[in-house]
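Shipment paperwork, digital attachment
Item: protein structure file
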Amino acid sequence: MSAPLELPEVVARAFDVSRRAGYVAFCRNETGRLLATLAATRTGVLAEFGTGCGVGTAWLRSGVRPGAMILTAELDAKLAGAAQEIFVDDPQVEVLAADWSTLRDKGPFSLLFLDSGSPTEVDVESVADLVEPGGIVVLDDFVPCAGWPPVTDGRVDTLREGWLSDERFTSVEVMVAADAAAIIATRR
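Attachment content:
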């Protein structure tokens, strides 16, 4: 068995900040590596809604191309402040202590990372026009689902169904671990 891959330095810093803040609801490493990979394909402006303490942002930053910009918004001012510590000297990252809707007029985005934990805010209708043609939306924190329509906890998962069936996007659900999945949706 090989040793686990080392974390990028910016991601290790973000984990340290999260621990100090007592924040444990951060982006998984498997999802983070996916974000870094996708960020490496993007130019322009990337965005994240729901920064937390900046672990997902750090993963995006670890892959982002020179000249690209990451905008991220966190409603909780304490968490946003913690994330700002990580990127204080980084001209490619701006962390806002604000509701995600403040980023609406800063798009369209080439990549948009969303936490699926707030389904009423991340449904397709709420964010579709925030992504440029060819732009990518990533939603994490799904439990893998093998059937159609997707069922979670005995009910049809309308958030997942909406993203996987919307004609404005070509979408796929990918397992990032045995117990975790993400949706990747590319704007047509």
